[in-house]
Amino acid sequence: MILKPTRFIDSVNCAIEGILYAARTQKHMRQHFLAAVAILLAVLFLRVSAIEFTLLAVSICFVLFAELFNTAIETVVDMLSPEYSEKARIAKDVAAGGVLIAAVSAAVMGWLVLANHIFPLYRELLAMFGTPAETGTLVAILVVVIAVVIIKALTGKGTPLHGGLPSGHAAIAFAIATAVSLNTQDPLTSVLSFALAAMVSHSRLLLRIHSTREVIAGALLGMGITLLILLLFKLA
Fold this sequence. Notes:
The chain has eight helices and no strands. The protein is flat. By secondary structure, the protein is mostly helical. It folds into two domains: 13-121, Helix Hairpins, CATH 1.10.287.3610; 130-235.
């Protein structure tokens, strides 16, 4: 028999237990908490206004509330329908859709608030590297392709375009994103380029062609070689 808390402190303890349960059992809840910490640290260093902080705080709380609500619905559905049920699936999908809408809304709010503070700093960082020559860009991408082929040959896993360490698609995608960022020196273009590179890399995970380790290795290889080659061309 479940007894309803009669004291306020007991109600608060129950609420805290619910939050801890969601954080302990739900991976997405932990990811939302980590994202919230990252945003709050950014707010601390960027010195946003009181109104901007309020908008970010409300957005963060909205996402966490949606994830808690989703966890509660999933738990109730599992209790009422332990076997597979189409209606149970729909209930879970709708609840997950609510979390997605909240997360997208928070991402848009974070973009609108933080972009004005981060983009000027990012533009200065890109300007430090200068605008690379076209030859340097082409050489960098070709070197990335050659490096991927050599590493795959040494590890003996996968082909140049399928499987193995590192992910060639991730390496080339992030090499191009790095080159585009340095050539344009435009923060928005850079962010969109890296977002596209991340989508290309993520597709390799969805298709089960590469592991997370292989994709990350490819991304780091592509960015590292591109930065190194372009810096060498700048100094030459």
